[in-house]
Amino acid sequence: MTKKNFDIIIVGGGPAGIISGVTARKYYPDKSILLIKNVAQGVVPCGIPYMFSTLNKPEDNAMGDAPLQKNKIDFLVDEVVDLKKDEHKIETKLGNSFSYQKLVLANGSNPIIPPIKGLDKNGVYAIHKDMPYLKELKNKIGSAKNIVIIGGGFIGIEFADELSNINNLNVHLVEVLPRLLMNSFDPEFSKMVETKLEEKGVKLILGKKVVEIIGKEKVKKVNLDDNNNIKADLIILCIGAAPNIKLAEKAGLETIKSGICVDEYMRTSDKNIFAVGDCAGKKDFFTRKILPVMLASTATAEARVAGANLFQLKVVRENKGTIAIYSTYVDGLVLGSAGLSETAATNEGFEIVKGTAEVPSKHPTSLPNTEMIKVKLIFSKQSEVLMGGQISGGITAGEIINSIGLAIQQRVSLTELETLQMATHPHLTAPPTQYPLVLAAQNTLNR
After folding, report:
1. What number of H helices and E strands is found in the chain?
2. What are phi and psi of 367, to 5 degrees?
3. Strand boundaries in 12-145, DSSP class E
4. How high is the pLDDT of residue 257?
5. Using one digit for the tens of pLDDT, what is the confidence trace for 130-172?
6. What does the pLDDT read at residue 318?
7. Which residues, including other chains, have CB under 8 Å from residue 412's CB and lie 6 or more apart?
8. Are the C-beta atoms of 96 and 1 separated by less than 8 Å?
């Protein structure tokens, strides 16, 4: 690449980086844009678990460069190793040097590697967003009989669900906490996913910790803190990720535990440098405490804020904090969570009231494929503002949780939800007489 000066440089080729570029092109059509990514063949992060059984081939989950090409964004496979913010310059591993007017750091996160003895043995895999690496993992899974997944968060349960579809494969899931998805869901929702996985043959080991990987050069088994052993041909680490902030720290940008410090418009401590996605620090919507949330949906929301406001604050759609909105799918069961759970709200000291509803997904219930939807809403007792919600059900639950997320973001009140106007249809929604959000709000009022 002969051009060395760009108006906008984006570091990172994941969802946050791509959407930053696409949004910047929309608002600043005449600016030159370069995106630098350190992985030639990236993958869609949320689709990684489904590369091993559901998708026909791993390449079906490729990220691809089409959005960059369509928007005339230059891109380069390289790694930025030095940022000289006072000179508005970056340097790369391959010896390239580029200057910028505005820089967007979207260089993501790295898998957390726990201090477990023996992790250097063959057969231990973390979750890297790299196509060749994941194809190698798929090949190893194909020749394995016993797999141990370490970590009971979203990625761990989705891997367990996916791998349980493979014949003659024994799957164990080990989680140090006493229940699955404990950081995002209340106990009654955790129990649903635990039951689903156990029904599919996944062996859950909760409240236990892996202390050692046993074997000579290759994994043979894992040793737990109760001295029990589990056979293992392969171990998959699903413990989570840590923000990739080395470049920012080296450059002297302000950072916190959850990432690079940013303001409401995703600007760092240097007004010409923005940070979005996993590498950007997150704070809770209600408490403003540091929040270790790493989601593609959150990343792209941040990217749209940054991309629009690089040169001028064109869009006053500031980042007021992270709601932490999740959804997951396990063998037909959809779980969604937004905002504070009852457990988290209580632990923070909020005075809350809650309401629940359990209704059919269609009406009449005799229609084919009708499922039950369960909703739980958390409100501030004094102000009656919605603070959190959780849902379980079928496919429709995945969009209802987005409605709950919007209601939290807009600080919708209990009365507003009780009088919600909604579209309903027998094949598409719960009945208008029993719409789940309305019923859960009314249930709260009755309490």
Report:
1. 11, 24
2. -65, 145
3. 33-37, 74-77, 80-84, 89-92, 97-105, 109-111, 124-125
4. 85
5. 999 999 999 999 999 999 999 999 999 999 999 999 999 999 9
6. 55
7. 385, 386
8. yes
Say how far residue 228 (Cα) sits from the centre of its chain: 32
Confidence of residue 319 (pLDDT cuts 50, 70, 90): low
- From the options 3.50.50.60, 3.30.70.1350, 3.30.450.20, 3.40.50.2300, give the CATH code of 113-239: 3.50.50.60
Among 373, 298, 382, 389, residue whose Cα is nearest residue 341? 389
3-state secondary structure 239-251: CCEEECCHHHHHH
pLDDT tens for 218-235 read: 999 999 999 999 999 999
Instruction: Please give the structure tokens belonging to residue 431.
Output: 């009945």
- CATH ID of 333-446, from 3.30.70.100, 3.90.190.10, 3.90.226.10, 3.30.390.30: 3.30.390.30
The CA distance from 73 to 408, in Å, is: 35
Which residue reads 């990987």 in tokens?
213
- In angstroms, the CA 106 to CA 294 distance is 12
- State percent of the chain over pLDDT 90: 92
- Please tell me the distance from the alpha carbon of residue 322 to that of residue 214, in angstroms, as a whole number: 40
- What is the chain's Cα-based Rg? 23
pLDDT in tens, 392-411: 999 999 999 999 999 999 99
Q: How far apart are the first and last CA of the chain?
A: 66
The yes-or-no verdict on residue 258 having pLDDT over 90 is no
Token pair, residue 154, equals 């979203």
DSSP 161-182: HHHTTSTT-EEEEEESSSSTTT
- Cβ partners under 8 Å of residue 349, min gap 6: none
117 secondary structure, DSSP code: B
